[in-house]
């Protein structure tokens, strides 16, 4: 029979098939067997005589070159206006809203940003194609501390400090830097294919957001939720500013634990210099050693004069740590400050904002903390007040931005009261509203395990310090009367006014001159209002009514406290509704060894560099497939290069389809003409259902995997190969390609849009980006056709495995006999397909029959497959080879059996090791059985 033009097929193992020996006299005939090989002899000629191929007007190039199409396609998308939901075709009453987590305006984006751009774009493109008014609103965050620090480093290279420039001069330099960074960020986000609405782009420090933040501050102040008080704060001497509790990182360090003689007690501390500010000691009320001391007062003298110390009881004291007595320094410990508040202890500040000892530290005043500690300890040792010093490991509090050690100290700052009942919210506090939002499942957190993290943080939330001592940011809208305002105690003084502008005159004294608070607001205060200020609040806008609450917040799990919790807190207060219905938390992007990316490790991947090299679609797939919510994702250049092949494969599939016949728009599901048609159309329906269901619940990796398997393993490896044989597939191929492009588009928008534009598009407005998402027709899937086709696949794979096991040359044809029971008609009707894909010359099909002599055999799904080996392989050489392999395998089996028969090994070796050895023995025995079956099949 003439050779077909098929390429060699990959082999695949089938669990329910096994080669076995079959003995049958060569001249024995089986009456019920009908030879049908002649029926397929003209197969290649028939395929070659198909009607002439008609291809689309614009042929696809041989190779896909992403560098030549991506910028052009993005320009086309942006020009169309379809990123803006107001411009989308058709009626779209149902919104889908995503607020882009605004990248810090500090420079370029990294691969972690590429992650959120990819995942959010998948969500947006899918919902846009589903007919929703999809709004993905982009923006940037002024990131006050980070941006200020960046610019300070820049001007330091010029030999300048911010004080040399002055506040206005420094802010001018910062704004210039931000403008350049924003331009870079916009370009990078566009390069990743982000279909966000640039017409609504926002910036946390632009004029609309500034107006909104001022109004938010004013309302919260009027409701008593914002106050100014003298409390303990986290202070960064390097940044010269306060930090919120969750902006403090911790770094384990080697330290010393000093045991000091402390009047009648011994106190253990890692920071002896702070004892100069002690005003009390605390003991556990259950500690019998010190019960009689509670409520008494004594004095100590550490070299700067007598300090009066009062003994208090508090259950927070660990009786097992040190001596069980804790010296209280209310000005330099949040825990001590809380105890001091409850017990009315004096607050004595001995460390200043400059990180040096204050005048209250006596002779140690002006010394940096570390230097003061060394000198103080030496003085105590000289006076015999140090009992002992132990090595100790503890967590050092450091700034999350500059890594400088944090100094807890008391300062007059602005705070948000998270526990105050809010009358307009049913008497619930900000903390209670935020907890209720997740407890009630109005906001769902993915993955669910992060709900516990959220609850733990929120339940332990203390009043939030929102003032920062830096120049860049939202200036606090508070005004102080020059005539009467004084800062006294912890209470707010007269002459303080809150608003966008000061009053004409002071209501307390009639004075007309005011000064604005010099501090700025914590960045998270403004970004916490991101979901509603970007939609026009405080005005009652159409956008706010339509797009809030937003559909989903997609962000990294490491800012669940910084940002996610604060947005829930702000929105439930301001809008009386949650800011988003779902929180999707993605993991961090790490290198292929699981390490964080850093300059020192030289493992940073620039998304723009790899996009230019491999194509943006490849980068997007590498960040999507295998990535699940809340779990870190590994990425490497090799992984990206691998996914470039996927984009190329999709291009080649489309190109092959185009070469098989006329590709045109097909709106209705075509009528199947063959079993293969019924199977592929049914599988497409299943894929549409699975992909849609997963995307609806933000399961983003699995639908991409489903599409990959369908496109490569079923469509390309099976149906397209059959299409070469059966011919006449133009309508079905058109339908398949159109639906396939739509399904793939959210994941790989560039290659799919380029194919669509060249093959299907009827004009500029006809873009895949706004094409309708595929839906399954009302027709029930034909499960029988699926089972029938899977039966044919099993037969074909069985023949291929036999060919591979006996190393039959790929181009050489074999003969085959099939005993298939009731499937005789099915196999005869599809003989062309079986022979073409399995490279069979003479095919015999019967319900049943006697085994063939010198033939390899397999059993699949109750069907028997026989492939005669005589003349196909050197039987004697093959016997010798198999016998040698059996001997080696039996030798290995004997060694394994002896090892497992050794009670000493079995009882002492780890359970996993013993289990592994048993698995090896089972595998070896199975291999020996298969080899013996192959040997028997070769005959005598």
Characterize the structure shown.
- 40% of the residues lie in helices and 17% in strands.
- The protein is an alpha/beta fold and 940 residues long.
- Among the domains are: 88-206 and 525-586, HUPs (Rossmann fold), CATH 3.40.50.620; 223-231 and 412-426 and 447-521, no CATH class; 234-410, Valyl/Leucyl/Isoleucyl-tRNA synthetase, editing domain (Isoleucyl-tRNA Synthetase, domain 2, Alpha-Beta Complex), CATH 3.90.740.10.
- The strands form 10 sheets. The protein has a 5-stranded mixed sheet. A 4-stranded antiparallel sheet has the order 7-6-15-17. Strands 11-12-10-13 form a 4-stranded mixed sheet.
- α17 (637-660) packs antiparallel against α20 and α18 runs parallel beside α20.
- Mean pLDDT is 87; it is low at 1-57.
Task: List the topology elements.
Elements: E1 34-35, H1 43-48, H2 70-80, E2 95-99, H3 111-129, E3 133-137, E4 139-140, H4 144-156, H5 162-191, E5 202-203, H6 207-222, E6 226-236, E7 241-243, E8 248-262, E9 265-269, E10 280-283, E11 297-301, E12 306-313, E13 325-328, H7 334-343, H8 369-382, E14 386-399, E15 407-416, H9 430-439, E16 444-446, H10 450-459, E17 464-465, E18 467-468, E19 478-481, E20 496-498, E21 514-516, E22 520-521, H11 523-527, H12 530-533, H13 542-547, E23 550-556, H14 560-574, E24 580-586, E25 589-590, H15 607-614, H16 616-624, E26 633-634, H17 637-660, H18 675-696, H19 701-726, H20 730-744, H21 749-759, H22 783-805, E27 814-819, H23 824-829, H24 831-838, E28 840-846, E29 855-860, E30 863-868, H25 875-900, H26 903-908, H27 911-937
Parallel strand pairs: 2-3, 4-5, 10-12, 16-24, 23-24, 25-26, 27-28
Antiparallel strand pairs: 1-28, 6-7, 6-15, 8-9, 8-14, 10-13, 11-12, 15-17, 18-22, 19-20, 19-21, 27-30, 29-30
Helix pairs in contact: 3-16, 4-5, 9-10, 9-14, 15-16, 16-17, 17-19, 17-20, 17-21, 18-19, 18-20, 18-22, 19-24, 20-21, 22-24, 25-27
């Amino acid at each position: 029979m003439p050779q077909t033009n098929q390429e060699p097929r990959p082999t695949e193992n089938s669990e329910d098939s096994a080669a076995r020996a079959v003995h049958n006299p060569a001249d024995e005939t089986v009456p019920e067997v009908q030879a049908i090989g002649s029926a397929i002899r003209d197969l290649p000629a028939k395929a070659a005589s198909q009607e002439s191929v008609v291809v689309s007007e614009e042929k696809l190039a041989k190779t896909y070159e992403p560098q030549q199409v991506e910028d052009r396609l993005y320009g086309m998308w942006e020009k169309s206006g379809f990123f803006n939901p107001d411009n989308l075709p058709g009626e779209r009453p149902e919104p889908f809203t995503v607020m882009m987590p605004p990248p810090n305006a500090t420079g370029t984006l990294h691969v972690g940003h590429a992650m959120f751009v990819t995942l959010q774009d998948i969500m947006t493109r899918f919902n846009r194609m589903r007919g929703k008014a999809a709004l993905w609103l982009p923006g940037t965050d002024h990131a006050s501390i980070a941006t200020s620090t960046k610019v300070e480093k820049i001007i330091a290279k010029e030999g300048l400090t911010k004080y040399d420039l002055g506040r206005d001069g420094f802010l001018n330099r910062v704004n210039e830097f931000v403008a350049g960074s924003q331009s870079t960020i916009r370009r990078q986000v566009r390069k990743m294919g982000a279909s966000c609405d640039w017409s609504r782009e926002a910036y946390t420090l632009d004029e609309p957001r500034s107006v909104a933040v001022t109004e938010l501050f004013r309302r919260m102040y009027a409701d008593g939720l914002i106050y100014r008080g003298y409390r303990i704060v986290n202070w960064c001497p390097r940044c010269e500013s306060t930090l919120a509790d969750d902006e403090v990182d911790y770094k384990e360090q080697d330290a010393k634990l000093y045991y000091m003689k402390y009047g009648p007690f011994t106190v253990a501390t890692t920071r002896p210099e702070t004892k100069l500010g002690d005003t009390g000691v605390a003991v556990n009320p259950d500690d019998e050693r010190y019960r009689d001391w509670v409520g008494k007062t004594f004095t100590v003298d550490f070299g700067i004069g007598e300090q009066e110390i009062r003994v208090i009881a508090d259950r927070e004291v660990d009786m097992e740590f040190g001596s069980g007595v804790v010296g209280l320094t209310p000005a330099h410990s949040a825990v001590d400050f809380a105890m001091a508040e409850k017990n009315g202890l004096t607050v004595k500040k001995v460390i200043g904002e400059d990180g040096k000892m204050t005048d209250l530290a006596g002779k140690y005043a002006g010394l940096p903390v570390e230097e003061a500690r060394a000198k103080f300890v030496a003085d105590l040792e000289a006076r015999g007040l140090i009992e002992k010093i132990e090595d100790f490991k503890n967590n050092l509090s450091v700034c999350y931005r500059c890594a400088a050690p944090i100094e807890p100290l008391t300062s007059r700052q602005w705070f948000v009261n998270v526990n105050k009942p809010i009358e307009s919210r049913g008497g619930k506090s900000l903390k209670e509203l935020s907890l209720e939002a997740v407890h009630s499942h109005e906001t769902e957190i993915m993955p669910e395990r992060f709900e516990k993290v959220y609850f733990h943080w929120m339940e332990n939330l203390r009043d939030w310090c929102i003032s920062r001592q830096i120049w860049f940011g939202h200036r606090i809208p508070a005004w102080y009367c020059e005539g009467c305002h004084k800062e006294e105690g912890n209470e707010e003084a007269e002459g303080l006014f809150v608003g966008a502008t000061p009053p004409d005159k002071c209501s307390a004294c009639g004075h007309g001159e005011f000064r604005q608070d010099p501090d700025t607001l914590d960045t998270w205060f403004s970004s916490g209002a991101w979901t509603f200020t970007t939609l026009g609040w405080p005005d009652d806008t159409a956008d706010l009514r339509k797009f809030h609450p937003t559909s989903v917040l997609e962000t990294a799990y490491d800012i669940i406290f910084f940002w996610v919790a604060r947005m829930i807190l702000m929105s439930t207060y301001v809008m009386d509704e949650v800011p988003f219905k779902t929180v999707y938390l993605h993991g961090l992007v790490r290198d292929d060894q699981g390490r964080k990316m850093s300059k020192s490790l030289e493992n940073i991947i620039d998304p723009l560099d790899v996009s230019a090299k491999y194509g943006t679609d490849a980068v997007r797939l590498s960040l999507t497939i295998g990535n699940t919510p809340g779990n870190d994702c590994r990425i490497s250049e090799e992984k990206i290069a691998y996914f470039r092949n996927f984009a190329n494969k999709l291009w080649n599939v489309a190109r092959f389809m185009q070469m098989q016949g006329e590709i045109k728009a097909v709106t209705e599901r075509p009528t199947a003409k063959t079993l293969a048609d019924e199977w592929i159309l049914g599988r497409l329906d299943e894929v549409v259902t699975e992909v849609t269901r997963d995307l609806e619940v933000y399961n983003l990796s699995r639908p991409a995997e489903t599409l990959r398997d369908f496109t490569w393993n079923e469509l390309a490896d099976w149906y397209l190969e059959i299409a070469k044989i059966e011919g006449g597939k133009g309508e079905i191929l058109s339908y398949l390609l159109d639906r396939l492009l739509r399904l793939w588009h959210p994941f790989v928008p560039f290659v799919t849009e380029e194919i669509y534009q060249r093959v299907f598009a009827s004009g500029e407005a006809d873009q895949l980006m706004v094409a309708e998402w595929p839906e399954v027709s009302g027709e029930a899937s034909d499960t029988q056709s699926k089972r029938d086709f899977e039966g044919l696949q099993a037969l074909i794979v069985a023949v291929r495995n036999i060919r591979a096991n006996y190393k039959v040359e790929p181009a050489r044809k074999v003969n085959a006999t099939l005993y298939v029971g009731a499937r005789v008609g099915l196999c005869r009707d599809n003989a062309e397909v079986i022979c073409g894909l399995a490279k069979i010359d003479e095919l015999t099909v019967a319900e049943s029959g006697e085994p063939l002599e010198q033939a390899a055999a397999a059993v699949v799904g109750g069907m028997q497959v026989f492939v005669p080996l005589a003349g196909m392989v050197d039987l004697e050489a093959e016997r010798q080879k198999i016998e040698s392999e059996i001997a080696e395998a039996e030798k290995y089996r004997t060694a394994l059996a002896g090892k497992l028969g050794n009670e000493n090994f079995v009882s002492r070796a780890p359970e996993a090791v013993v289990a592994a050895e048993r698995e090896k023995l089972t595998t070896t025995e199975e291999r020996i059985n298969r080899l013996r079956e192959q040997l028997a099949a070769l005959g005598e």
